[in-house]
Design a protein that fits this description.
The protein has helices spanning 29-38, 58-61, 66-69, 114-122, 130-140, 168-179, 211-216, 268-278, 284-289, 329-342, 380-385, 433-450, 472-482, 533-552; strands at 3-8, 13-25, 46-49, 76-80, 91-95, 141-143, 158-162, 194-197, 199-200, 225-228, 232-239, 242-250, 253-265, 281-282, 296-297, 309-317, 354-358, 368-373, 396-403, 411-413, 424-426, 459-462, 484-485, 516-518. With 553 residues, the protein is of the alpha/beta class. The chain folds into two domains: 1-74 and 92-146 and 210-305 and 503-553, FAD/NAD(P)-binding domain (3-Layer(bba) Sandwich); 164-197 and 309-403 and 432-482, 2-Layer Sandwich (Cholesterol Oxidase, domain 2). Strand 11 and strand 12 (242-250) form a beta hairpin. Mean pLDDT is 95; it is low at 5-12. It binds flavin-adenine dinucleotide. The site of flavin-adenine dinucleotide has 40 residues, from helix 1, strand 5, strand 11, helix 8 and helix 14.
């Protein structure tokens, strides 16, 4: 597939490859769904371009292995975050290679709440309400555990399995959560406030299910689907207000691929706005300062960055061995062997086994996601005092959670026209004081859970900041250091009806540019109330329906 035209310049060979109808940039959670759906018609020629490699490392298919490869440039794209006063320096690493972030994430699966999506429809985004999105979840899900919510899908591509962790401490944790307004539910992804077994994008055979595994691997031999990697898209080629293809760097040589139908950018929450900006779509002042010709003035590109705020607290654990010891010393080797022989054991699932959803004060639907495990990492203070492995054998118990609907907004902007330089991320974690109040409320919920009678006998000393830190100001200072970005970024190419404040319309088309769409986490106008991989795959499923409908029109 693809007609090749070679241009020789004084500097390097430049190729033009023709013969594709649709080009998808980025093989992450969204890009893989799109590649599957949009290539279902054998007459439609699809090209999927991905910056990274094939992600075939055994530490990727073993969900618990991601800790071992965390941050390695082969599997992660890293983005420096502008420093915030009173906080640690941060670097955000999202996935790279086939599967994108779904190939290296924590595999925790949730859907978000109906109100999240109905809120989008209420903003005028026709076709994005819960009824439509619930259907898309059903289409992609393959969940067959007993007690599944009737709304779940059981025949889709994405295998999802619940935690199987069993221990008296699990039962005690369930009771503690119930004491705080979260009764036990047999399916934690069902809407509303409750606690349940965490669910993971891990197959019934014990292997991570990335979006690539689910959607592309089984169909990669389609003759009308070409996958090119590693190749980084430098910019979208736009002529007379219409996207006509993409200009790529493939190990130092430049190739232009043309698209007869359209280009779809699915490069992730930082990659997509950066690519639009390098293509001349963005804030005119920024682009001109970097010497980039303005194709379409759009101040919304890179704005509205939202991320879940993550917070955790660990306690010493008494009268229970905990699971820390499973990840150090001879037990780690035993568990690795067990995993490779039977695809089971502590390394087959990485997440905290129990998930609770609860609405904070004044909220009508859950905006705190809380998890717990008889496991603890060393605290940031301990790590600063003596760097080394974050895991020791010392038993601990952790509550960890997200504030799911923060009001602070950050931004992403390129700092040079060079495609090799990562864009600058400004997170601004507590720029809205509402988020500071919610962080304190979440932290106090952790302490109430720890104090629940069901956990008496298990819980020892609070490790950080320590039970003696109680007044608002002192707690606030510590929590401000401890709170992290959830790596669930959304909103930087936001979908909306007003071209002045959004980047794409309700059919994911970039305002003002023909034949160009964005489909990935960057288009979510507001955050969803749960981890983002599942929702982003469902959003891509919904986008594929709209794109196919447009194609047939
Ligand atoms: C460490 C980590 C842990 C997480 N844990 C969880 C979890 O447990 N559960 C959950 O639901 N969510 C989790 N998430 C979030 C979730 O995985 C992401 O929100 C989701 O996968 C993002 O999907 P996406 O399609 O928007 O982008 P990605 O999946 O990030 O895909 C973007 C792809 O585009 C490629 N790309 C970018 N620019 C270019 C370019 N110019 N040319 C070519 N290719 C390009 C990238 O290499 C990447 O493969 C986690 C995220 C991280 C980083």
């Amino acid at each position: 597939m693809g007609t090749k035209v070679l241009f020789l310049t004084l500097h390097a060979a430049r190729e033009i490859m023709e013969g594709f109808d649709t080009i998808i940039v980025g093989a992450g959670s969204a890009g893989c769904v799109l590649a599957n759906r949009l290539s279902a018609d054998p007459a439609h020629r699809v090209l999927l371009i991905e910056d990274g490699g094939d992600n075939q490392h055994p530490f990727i298919s073993m969900a618990g292995g991601f800790v071992k490869i965390m941050g390695r440039p082969q599997y992660f794209r890293s983005f420096p975050v502008a420093e915030e006063a009173g906080r640690r320096k941060e670097m955000h690493s999202y996935g790279r290679g086939l599967g994108g972030s779904s190939a290296i994430n924590g595999t925790w699966y949730l859907r978000g709440e109906p109100e999240d999506y109905d809120g989008w429809a209420a903003q005028g985004l026709v076709g994005w309400g819960w009824d439509d999105i619930a259907r898309c979840f059903r289409t992609i899900e393959n969940y067959r555990a007993p007690g599944a919510d009737p709304a779940r899908g059981s025949d889709g591509e994405v295998q999802i399995t619940p935690s199987t962790y069993a221990s008296p401490i699990f039962d005690a944790l369930v009771e503690a959560f119930a004491s705080q307004g979260m009764p036990f539910a047999s399916d934690v992804t069902a809407p509303g406030c409750h606690v349940g077994r965490s669910q993971y994008t891990v197959s019934r055979g014990g292997q991570r299910v990335s979006a690539y595994d689910a959607f592309v691997k089984p169909i990669r031999n389609r003759k009308n689907l070409a996958i090119i990697h590693p190749a980084i898209v430098k910019r979208v080629a736009i002529r007379h207000g219409r996207a006509i293809g993409v200009v790529c760097d493939r190990e130092g040589s430049e190739t232009t691929f043309t698209a007869a139908c359209e280009v779809i950018v699915a490069a992730g929450v930082y990659g997509s706005p950066a690519l639009l900006q390098r293509s001349g779509i963005g804030d005119g002042g920024l682009l001109q300062a970097l010497g980039i010709a303005v194709v379409r003035e759009s101040g919304a590109v890179g704005r509205n960055l939202c991320d879940h705020h993550k917070l955790g607290v660990s306690f010493d654990l008494a009268n229970h061995p905990g699971t820390n010891r499973e990840f150090v010393g001879w037990r780690l080797y035993r568990n690795a062997l067990r995993y490779f022989l039977t695809r089971s054991g502590p390394l087959a699932r990485v997440g905290l086994p129990i998930t609770g959803m609860i609405a904070s004060s004044g909220q009508a639907w859950p905006d705190f996601q809380v998890a717990a495990a008889p496991f603890a990492m060393r605290t940031i203070n301990e790590m600063a005092a003596s760097p080394g492995s974050p895991i020791t054998a010392k038993p601990g118990l952790t509550f960890s959670g997200y504030h799911l609907r923060p009001r602070s907004r950050g931004s992403v902007a390129i700092t040079t026209a060079d495609f090799r330089t990562a864009p600058r991320v400004a997170g601004q974690i507590w720029s809205d004081p509402y988020d500071r109040d919610k962080a304190l409320e979440l932290f106090r919920l952790f302490r109430r859970l720890a104090a629940a009678p069901a956990l008496a006998g298990y819980i020892g000393a609070e490790r950080m900041p320590g039970a003696d830190v109680i007044d608002d100001d002192a707690l606030c200072e510590m929590v401000h250091k401890m709170v992290e970005y959830g790596l669930h970024g959304t909103g930087t190419c936001t979908m909306g009806v007003d071209p002045a404040t959004s980047v794409v319309d309700a059919r994911c088309r970039v305002h003002g540019i023909a034949a160009l769409r964005v489909v990935d986490g960057s288009i979510l106008p507001t955050p969803v109330s749960g981890n983002t991989n599942g929702p982003i795959m469902a959003v891509a499923q919904r986008a594929s329906e709209l794109i196919l409908a447009d194609r047939h029109r």
